[in-house]
Write a structure and sequence with these properties.
It comes from Paraburkholderia piptadeniae. This is Citrate-proton symporter. By secondary structure, the protein is mainly α. It has 19 helices and no strands. The chain is about 85% helix and about 0% strand. Helix 3 runs antiparallel to helix 8.
Length: about 375
């Protein structure tokens, strides 16, 4: 619980990052903002990777790791919003959903890559060496990738939509606009809760759930995580493209309802007779639900936000939701511990889907709203 709480603590910084960095991007431009967020993320990751152990510097070690995690969270608060808004503004007509889906799609590449590193390290290193120093390897690899990412982001051009704006809001104007549009931000937060709970349940929590609850091997759970990343990568752009053709609302409603009806029964079936095959099948089904919902949700969130505060509004809604969804591994662990029900994480996912359903109905409650963002 303590380890999972440190993981979740980074999400508490996301709303602050969304407001501060989101305002910076909406005023200074998408390209400059993406370079700044990458710099902050690199610093946080390097901090986690390079901190000496507890035996060397005592309690300062976990404190500095937590600091690095908070810095990562501050940067991540606007990272997804900044990239999604950039993609939506460079998308060709009628393809915004498909374009925006690749932001989440890129995250799945990271999931697969990280899980493969985990499989490799677990096969190569004994448990005591993994605990001693092996856990640092993924962070160090992340640091090595940063220079390449800097080159990519420096080569990006500013979006035409931003360049043609005659008025670029000040920080104060951005804050006032978000306060005036609090209902949209709250609705966006409701939509994102389902995404964040689903994502962290099927990716970050799967190794812990498989090993500690189902008593499967670490290798089996990491292999399943690799498969989940591949599955997500398939369904996200498919769903984004479908939402371009039939509209965002039908996609969002279909998959929130399916999640409400099936997530808990699926996890119940898994825990009744745990096995690698059952874990894979259940996680692939949950991946289908997540990927198809998120493919339509991200672009919908870029569209419902006022254009002058699009990045800040998107990022704030997303970050507020991740302060809940990011704690999914800890919440799932707590629910199992207090209820004695190993399938309790499925209930948590159903609750998140109810939030998504209510938010979708609220944001698309009028015929005008239902048609406004269809094939935008």
């Amino acid at each position: 619980m303590l380890s999972l709480s440190v993981f979740g603590a980074g999400f508490l910084m996301r709303p602050l990052g969304a407001i501060v960095l989101g305002a910076y991007i909406d005023h200074h431009g998408r390209r400059k903002g993406l370079i700044l967020t990458l710099s902050l993320m690199a610093l946080g990751t390097l901090t986690v990777a390079a901190i000496p152990g507890y035996a060397t510097i005592g309690v300062l070690a976990p404190a500095l790791v937590l600091l690095g995690r908070l810095l990562q969270g501050f940067s991540a608060g606007v990272e997804l919003g900044g990239v999604s808004v950039y993609l939506s503004e460079i998308a060709t007509k009628g393809n915004k959903g498909f374009y925006c889906s690749w932001q989440s799609g890129s995250q799945q590449v990271a999931v697969v890559f990280a899980a493969l590193i985990g499989v490799f390290l677990n096969r190569l290193l004994p448990a005591d060496q993994m605990t001693a120093w092996g856990w640092r390897v993924p962070f160090l690899i992340g640091c090595l990738i940063v220079p390449f990412l800097f080159l990519i982001r420096r080569s990006l051009k500013e979006t035409e939509e931003f360049l043609t704006k005659k008025h670029r809001p000040t920080v104060g104007e951005i804050f006032r606009s978000m306060a005036q549009n609090w209902g949209i931000v709250l609705g966006g937060m409701g939509m994102v809760i389902m995404t964040t709970v689903s994502f962290y349940m099927i990716t970050a929590y799967t190794p812990t759930f498989g090993k500690e609850v189902l008593k499967l091997s670490a290798i089996d759970t990491l292999i399943v995580t690799v498969c989940i990343g591949v599955s997500n990568l398939i369904w996200l752009p498919v769903s984004g493209a479908i939402s371009d053709r039939i509209g965002r609302r039908p996609v969002l409603l279909t998959f929130t309802i399916l999640t409400i009806l099936t997530s808990y029964p699926a996890v119940q079936w898994l825990v009744a007779d745990p096995s690698f095959a059952r874990l894979l099948m259940v996680e692939l089904w949950l991946s289908f639900l997540y990927g198809c919902y998120n493919g339509g949700m991200v672009v919908a969130l870029t569209e419902v936000m006022p254009s002058d505060v699009r990045t800040a509004g998107f990022s704030l809604a997303y970050s507020l939701a991740t302060t809940i969804g990011g704690f999914t591994p800890a919440i799932a662990t707590y629910l199992i511990h207090t209820t004695g029900n190993k399938a309790a994480p499925g209930l948590w996912m159903s609750v998140a889907a109810v939030c998504g359903l209510i938010a979708t109905l609220a944001l698309y409650r009028t015929p005008e709203a239902r048609n406004q963002y269809r094939a935008a």
